[in-house]
Every structure is written in C-alpha cells, then in structure tokens.
Amino acid sequence: MPTPIPKNYHAIAMGSKIDLGPCCAFDNRPIFIHFFNPECPCSRFNVPHVSALIKKYGDQINFKIVVLNKQKNFTIDEIQQKFDAKIPVYFDEAIAKKCGVFSTPQAVLLDQSHNLYYRGNYNKTRYCTDTKSNYAQMAIDSLLGRKDNHNPSFNALALRAYGCSLPKCTK
Predict the structure, then answer these.
(1) Where is the DUF6436 domain (predicted)?
(2) Buried residues in 79-92 as b, exposed as e (16+ CB within 10 A)
C-alpha cells in the first residue's frame, strides 16, 4: 500500500531549486540523498542496493544519508557501517521536508545546480531485485547521461511513496 500523504504536506515540484543549507553548500556534483530509517523494514531491505549505488557512482555523485527515526538514537558510525561507506550522515528532518519526502526509504537526486531531478522509490520490489525497475539507478543514469534539460519520466510505482510514514516512521 502507498504511504498516506500527510495532511499538512507541502508538495515540492520536480525541477524546484532545493536549498539544503550548509550540508550541501559546496557540492558541485549531483547530490543523491538516501532517506533512511534503520527501524523501517523497507529501509533495511534496500541497504545492499543503496550500498551498491554508492560504490558504483560514488566518484560522480555526492551521496548523503538522512536518518529519520524518533524512537532510537543512532550514531554516524553505525549508519556508515550499515552501508559500508564513509559518506555524510545527517539526522535532520528539515531536509526531508525541503525535498518533499514523507516516508522511508526514499531517494532524492539533485542536479549540479541543486534542482530536484528525482524523488521516489528505489524499485517496485521491496528487495530491489527487479533490475527493470531500478528507478533510482535509472534516474542517476539519466542525469549523468543527459544531453538536454529534460527530466526522466517514470510510472506511478516510481514516484508514489511506499514505506514507513514520517515523522515517527511507523508502518
């Protein structure tokens, strides 16, 4: 089932300029933000897939993880160990709001100018096993290979939020 849209949700349109503040002020490459809750089963299931994306594209994209969990405190080191990657980790719910994210796991890809290029799911399957629906990876490939200013088009399964609701990240 899709994650219910919160009552006070403020939609952020694709192509919108996203000001993430100091965490991304000096990023001159595209930015990929993984919105993650270690307590959310869907988030846990896609850790290997996100780790593979970081390894494959880490030299071309600035990856970041935003941990969204109010029930338990996690450390940066704990999160980096889960993904086997020394990338920036943040615990700032405001980043999710600025990107229009209201569930975990979700992927956000910003172009070099910090415009929202993609916000959505990683895959149509919980375990990210269907290579034909690796939506986040498709968005990365599209951004890195684009020759025009058009954003990719995706079906509803890519763009409709599934997973644990924010702010408490409940199922």
Answers:
(1) 28-146
(2) beebbebebebbee
